[in-house]
Design the sequence.
């Protein structure tokens, strides 16, 4: 299924769903960030996805990272909340979503790299190479907030 992201675009389709989601900035002992290249868009992103009705947002981030990368993580802090109504995500199956994303920091506990059908590639990226990856600017915003090492989370 293909995915198209719109931002502040008057040509964007009207949303027909609201999805609560979690993502995680996972780092290893070398300070590298775990990134995935999404199968639905070809763009790089933090691992994450939609929350199930029977789980918390931190549990969602842990599950999604495991499903998409094969790694086990522990949530450590909150990067921020991302709820900008100008960000619209349209899927080829007709779903057009507004997404409420909560982004956490996490540390690697273990596991082994595994690709899911949602990822074309998963790799550890040195922090100084993150800007070179093609990604939607909303992902870049989360990474920027993480790298700023803020005293309080982003609320937006």
Sequence:
């Amino acid at each position: 299924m293909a995915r198209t992201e719109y931002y502040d675009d008057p040509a964007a389709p009207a949303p027909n769903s609201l999805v609560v989601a979690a993502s995680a900035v996972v780092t290893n002992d070398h300070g590298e960030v775990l990134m995935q290249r999404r199968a639905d868009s070809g763009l790089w992103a933090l691992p994450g996805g939609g929350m199930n009705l029977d789980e918390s947002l931190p549990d969602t981030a842990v599950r999604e990272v495991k499903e998409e990368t094969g790694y086990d993580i522990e949530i450590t802090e909150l990067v921020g909340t991302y709820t900008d109504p100008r960000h619209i995500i349209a899927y080829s199956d007709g779903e057009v979503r507004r997404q409420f994303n909560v982004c956490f920091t996490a540390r690697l506990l273990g596991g082994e790299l595994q690709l899911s059908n949602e990822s074309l590639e998963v790799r550890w990226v040195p922090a100084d190479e993150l800007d070179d990856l093609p990604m939607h600017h909303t992902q870049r915003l989360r990474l920027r907030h993480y790298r700023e090492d803020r005293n309080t989370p982003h609320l937006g």
